[in-house]
Design brief:
Chain A: GO terms for molecular function: ATP binding; tubulin binding; tubulin-glutamic acid ligase activity. Chain A: Belongs to the tubulin--tyrosine ligase family. Chain A: InterPro entries: ATP_grasp_subdomain_1, TTL/TTLL_fam. Chain A: One of its GO terms (cellular component) is ciliary basal body. Chain A: Keywords: ATP-binding, Ligase, Nucleotide-binding. The structure holds two protein chains of two kinds. By secondary structure, chain A is α+β, with helices and mostly antiparallel strands. Chain A has a domain of 221 residues: D-amino Acid Aminotransferase, Chain A, domain 1, CATH 3.30.470.20. Helix content of chain A is 32%, strand content 26%. In chain A, the strands form four sheets. In chain A, strands 9, 10, 11, 12, 13, 14, 15 and 16 form an eight-stranded antiparallel beta sheet that branches. A four-stranded antiparallel beta sheet of chain A has the order 1-8-2-3, sandwiched between helices. Chain A has a two-stranded antiparallel ribbon with strand order 4-7. In chain A, helix 1 crosses helix 8. By secondary structure, chain B is mainly alpha-helical. Chain B has a domain of 78 residues. In chain B, 57% of the residues lie in helices and 2% in strands. Chain B has a two-stranded antiparallel ribbon. In chain B, strands 3-4 form a two-stranded antiparallel sheet. In chain B, helix 11 packs antiparallel against helix 12 and helix 15 packs antiparallel against helix 16. Classes of the chains: A alpha+beta, B mainly alpha. At the A-B interface, strand 11 and helix 7 of A face helix 13 and helix 16 of B.
Chain lengths: 367, 527
């Protein structure tokens, strides 16, 4: 519900409407972190309408079911996708059934996928989303990058979410330009795609740790601006999780480790690109390996199969509890009501002295 | 005969005045003074006083102060007025001679490379090539010229060999060889400081004084030190006071203020004429192709493109270094360095002065270190002409001393000797052990010092270290840090039995926290 691109869109749109109804327009704008997205083929006509309203903008077409950048391409003209559509057959199923909401029988368009000629007899469908491409990404050294951030959810109802302090920024190997939208490699920063680019050097990583990025941005823009940026990112995590709270089958004994992909634009606004359910745990460098090892270790600590934790912890290793049926404050413990000077318990990109914290934690639990 | 204080002072004043006269600051001050004549506060009867007051309140006096302060920092104290200019550069004759032969060697190597490859040292680019380069200026990293035939002019260990072979011909060590002459690699009797003297010089790093890099860690509440320190930093920037800034950064720069503080200390304000100068250098690069350009390409690709954090700045590195290799104003600093730039001529114009291209030898010989010196600055400065000026100023104030042979206390020779002396004096067992297994400590720490630790430390730690270089206007801290690293890893080093194993212990410095190491070594070790 969170990790398939089309479901994410649907859930976010619905949640936004709900928020607008309940809390007003201003509150709803906090959900505007997802670039305009339309599901194909179901929303094709809505997409065309939007497309025509903004001629000349760039869009990206992504298959919902595939990962690692496969099947993705950019386009700027409708005729580009008309050709592509022709390769696939649009198949629809229509149902004429009673709708309780409208009190009569109506035609329902059952979404179907796009199948190629030889696939038309298969039951496998391929759904795509067309998404507004962020044309003004924040660049460092002329290169585009996106962020991979890890969020651990141990419960959906009530929502309990942990944010890992470490993460990384993945850089494109080549300089950013809108001129070459055919150049897959420039735009897709997924490491998986970068690995196939012609000038990719496997010895060199194209990643920065988030700590490094945070330092760079602070040196360039000042601490206050960067605080706002990171608070906006926290907002993305929380709102996206809230939007699927009711639809995810929640089980006390399940947990989900998500890899969030965030893109920052030139105005320092973060955008949610995608949420990954099984983020890649393959390591591309020693630093990367350590991050992922520690991430896994700390995930297992929180899942706590040995039952050592009290359940009131706000920090375990590199994970900080950012939401527990409500925002978690840096000060005080879990039960204290929020005070005037609320500061979020979020430390993305901050110093991660997890070993020390774990030692202290387990020592106090034994006592 | 020593110069007495008063005539020394008037000499200094005269020199500073001479340097500032005719500068753009001078003409700006004149203009401001003329403007002030229209102000009601300025009266004819007390003209001089009123203009002075006006300059003070409008902040122009501060700018002049900063410029004077900058000049004083850069130039050494004057020696005897009758001393010839070479003595100003470098008072010791044998050092001058060694630097001279080193430069000749580099130039010879460069010339022979040209002959071998039949490529001229310098040639004018055809117009089409010029256009192409101009278009690609911001993404030169995408170029992949064939550089396999170019080899570095020399390797860093060659430079260390030269330093090891320095001898003072006037110095006879006599029958009693002191431990110093036999154990270390550097065999010249320069005066270096001992720990008590260093403690005094670096008193702001003491245990009782707040530091960024120690007292801003996650466990320390910011009210204890950090908040106040940031507040003071903002005030220093508001006042635009160079001298205060230099004092302030001894305790470290807050990340958000660092770029401005460093610029204030080095008195770089990116005036229109500075931008113009950079553009002029850029057009020189476009018009002429120098052999050294290919060496720069090769070295940047090797060094920065493979570094985990610097790879992003590849394009900036090309821009800065290509311009730097054509910057003849850098030659000014040779007035106080022992190095003399070799000359070469654009092909076909041998002997014609307008076509002479001066190669600051350090550009040739230490490309690798230069690249590593520019890269950290890319974290702070993003506008090309400002980045360029900051690098150039850092080079002429500090980095060139790491690449030339001199007796200056911040020169590489003194730093090596300081390192060896500190180690021998305070960790004699370790020093002896490493010598025994054929792992002379300097062989391992040389590369750290000659690159000012860039490429070895984590970036945030490196910047904290460079804060102190600027704050103390000296590179001695590099030698102290090198010794502190050995002290920190002493236990492991005592256990190794080969050079390779010792190098492995010291291979990874990326997890080190610089300030605690320095503090412990200077202030918490029994001497």
């Amino acid at each position: 519900q969170l990790t398939r691109k089309n479901y994410l869109v649907k859930n976010l749109k619905r949640f936004r409407k709900q928020l607008e109804r309940e809390a007003g327009k201003l509150e709803a704008t906090k959900c505007d972190f997802f670039p305009k997205t339309f599901e194909m083929p179901l929303e094709y006509h809505l997409f065309v309408e939007e497309f025509r309203k903004n001629p000349g903008t760039t869009w990206i077409m992504k298959p919902v079911g595939r990962s690692q950048g496969k099947g993705i391409f950019l386009f700027r003209k409708l005729k580009d996708i008309i050709e592509w559509r022709k390769e696939k057959l649009w198949t629809f199923h229509l149902l004429f059934i009673y709708s309780p909401k409208r009190g009569k029988c109506v035609w329902f368009l059952l979404q179907d996928g796009l199948r190629t000629d030889d696939q038309k007899d298969e039951t496998q469908v391929e759904i795509y989303v067309a998404q507004r491409y962020i044309e003004n990404p924040y660049l460092i050294g002329g290169r585009k990058f996106d962020l991979r951030v890890y969020v651990l959810v141990t419960s959906y109802i009530p929502l309990k979410a942990w944010l890992y302090r470490d993460g990384f920024a993945r850089f494109s190997n080549t300089r950013f330009t809108l001129n070459s939208i055919d150049d897959h490699y420039v735009h897709l920063t997924n490491v998986a795609v970068q690995k196939t680019a012609p000038d990719y050097d496997p010895e060199k990583g194209c990643k920065w740790m988030i700590q490094q990025l945070r330092q760079y941005l602070t040196a360039k823009h000042g601490a206050d601006v960067v605080e706002v940026l990171f608070a906006d990112m926290d907002n993305i995590f929380i709102k996206s999780l809230q939007s699927v709270q009711k639809v995810i089958i929640s089980d006390k004994h399940c947990f989900e480790l998500y890899g969030y992909d965030i893109l920052i634009d030139q105005d320092l606004k973060p955008w949610l690109i995608e949420v990954n359910a099984s983020p890649s745990l393959a390591a591309s460098s020693q630093e990367d390996y350590e991050l992922k090892c520690h991430l896994l270790k700390d995930t297992l600590h929180i899942v706590d199969m040995e039952g050592r934790l009290t359940g009131k912890e706000k920090r375990v290793g590199g994970f900080d509890l950012i939401w527990s049926d409500g925002p978690v404050s840096r000060e005080g413990n879990l039960d204290t009501p929020p005070s005037e000077s609320f500061v979020a318990n979020s430390h993305l990109g901050c110093y991660n002295d997890r070993k020390k914290q774990l030692k202290q934690l387990f020592r106090s639990l034994c006592a | 005969a020593m110069v007495d204080a008063e005539s020394g002072l008037s000499l200094t004043i005269a020199r500073v005045v001479q340097r500032l006269r005719g500068s753009s600051l001078h003409s700006q001050l004149e203009r401001q003074a003329r403007v002030s004549l229209h102000k009601p506060e300025v009266k004819l009867e007390s003209l001089k006083e009123d203009i002075k007051d006006f300059l003070k309140t409008s902040g122009w006096e501060k700018k002049l102060q900063n410029a004077v302060y900058s000049e004083l920092n850069v130039f050494p104290s004057p020696c005897h007025p009758a001393a010839p200019p070479e003595h100003m550069k470098e008072p010791l004759a044998y050092m001058r001679k060694a630097q001279g032969s080193w430069e000749k060697r580099i130039l010879k190597s460069l010339n022979s490379m040209c002959t071998e490859l039949s490529i001229p040292l310098a040639q004018k680019r055809p117009v089409s090539e010029q256009k192409e380069l101009l278009n690609k200026w911001n993404e030169m990293g995408t170029d992949e010229p064939d550089l396999t035939l170019f080899r570095p002019v020399y390797a860093p260990k060659d430079f260390l060999e030269v330093l090891m072979n320095l001898r003072n011909p006037n110095y006879e060590n006599g029958e009693q060889p002191s431990f110093r002459n036999h154990l270390g690699l550097i065999q010249v009797p320069l005066k270096v400081k001992d720990i008590p003297e260093l403690k005094e010089d670096f008193s702001e790093l003491g245990l009782n004084i707040g530091q960024l890099g120690i007292d801003d860690s996650a466990q320390v509440p910011p009210e204890f030190f950090e908040n106040e320190h940031v507040r003071v930093g903002q005030k220093v920037l508001a006042e635009q006071d160079s001298a205060a800034a230099q004092q302030y950064v001894r305790q470290g720069c807050p990340t958000a203020l660092r770029a401005d503080l460093w610029a204030l200390i080095l008195n770089i304000s990116n005036q229109p004429e500075d931008i113009l100068y950079y553009e002029q250098l850029k057009s020189n690069v476009i018009q002429h192709n120098l052999l050294v350009d290919s060496l720069i390409y090769k070295d940047v690709k090797l060094t920065a493109s493979n570094d985990d954090y610097y790879f992003v700045f590849e394009d900036y590195l090309y821009q800065v270094l290509l311009c730097f290799s054509r910057d003849t104003s850098v030659l000014e600093h040779f007035a106080y360095s022992s190095a003399t730039p070799p000359k070469s001529y654009i092909r076909g114009k041998l002997g014609i002065e307008e076509y002479a291209v001066f190669y600051p030898p350090s550009v040739l010989s230490h490309l690798n270190s230069l690249i590593l010196a520019v890269a950290p600055l890319c974290f702070l400065y993003h506008e090309p002409s400002k980045l360029y000026q900051m690098f150039r100023e850092m080079y002429v104030r500090f980095f060139f001393r790491l690449h030339s042979i001199s007796s200056h206390p911040s020169g590489i020779v003194s730093l090596c000797l300081l390192f060896e002396t500190l180690l021998q004096t305070h960790l004699p067992q370790l020093f002896h052990h490493l010598r025994e297994i054929g792992a002379q400590p300097l062989r391992m720490s040389f590369k750290w010092m000659v690159r000012a630790f860039s490429g070895y430390l984590a970036t945030d730690q490196l910047l904290l270290l460079w804060d102190r270089i600027l704050g103390y206007n000296s590179l001695e801290i590099l030698a102290v840090l090198a010794a502190a690293v050995f002290a920190f890893r002493a236990v492991n080093l005592m256990e190794v039995t080969s050079l390779a194993a010792a190098e492995a212990v010291l291979a990874d410095l990326s997890t080190l926290k610089v300030m605690p190491l320095l503090q412990i070594f200077l202030f918490a070790t029994v001497t």
